[in-house]
Amino acid sequence: TARENAASVLSNEWVNDEYKHLRVRVDALAAQVKPGQFFNLQCPQTEQDKPFFRRPMSTWFANAEQGYVDFLYKVVGAGTRGLSTLRPQDAVNVLGPLGNGFTLQPGHRHILVAGRGVGLATLAPLAEHAAAHDVQVTALLSARDREHLMSQQRFLASGATVIEVTDSDGSSAMAQVEQRIRAVHQQSPIDAVYTCGSSRVILLLQRLSQELGFSGEAALEQQMACGLGMCYCCVRPMRNKESLALTDKRVCYDGPVFPLHEVVL
Ligand code: FES
User: Fold this and answer.
1) Is the ipTM reported for this complex over the cut 0.90?
2) Is residue 243 a part of any domain in this protein?
3) Full strand arrangement of the beta sheet holding 38-41
4) Cα of 41 from ligand 1 centre, angstroms
5) Whether residues 132 and 89 fall in one domain
6) Based on the structure, what is the number of domains in the chain?
7) Which one of 140, 159, 173, 193 has the minimum C-beta count within 10 Å?
8) 119 & 94 share domain
9) Which atom of ligand 1 is nearest to the CA of 232?
């Protein structure tokens, strides 16, 4: 069960010109976090910014022994600008862990995680979890340039085979990603694919999963308010696999991870 917690900031450092890495002490809550789950963070108000809603932030890393969780975030708007002002020992109110998280199917021997930019931060814990359960992991990391490829070290340390694709590598990034996935699948059949965030990657994986016959899950990024399934401000239509009918689902409560084929973009 999610609880509201007055947590304290351990560190909040820039990792490049756009992203910051926030570490928050959450004590026993850290042991409950599953890959793909998120916390809803209250963002500090600053002189120019008065963020009203909490900001959902997927967990990048959870350390159960030392009782902290890490978040990687892009400083883009009032909420994240507020978060970027947090300093060690500041109090921050966190609600979580929330949402369903990714699922590994028993019997799956090889998974592929594919993402762009900050979406990769959500996939790193899944790669580690899978590797710890003897599942072979291929991680396809894509970004506009090398500087914005996030979490390579985490994927490499987990034992995943890492493939990097940047927009500056020549042909379009998505064409390269598709080519690489086909090559990986030919060499060692993929059982399931996992992604987060990028609509372009989700659309590509939906098409490839139908053609090549693997299953998959996508973690969605969505504006939220309560994060608890009560306000319905994060509702999105999802497609039923059999009937193809659309049903409204709450990303915070029914997700944020959905079967790939359910996602409508
Ligand atoms: Fe309130 Fe999802 S954010 S129901």
Assistant:
1) yes
2) yes
3) 55-58, 38-41, 91-98, 3-14, 19-25, 68-74, 61-63
4) 14
5) no
6) 2
7) 159
8) no
9) 4
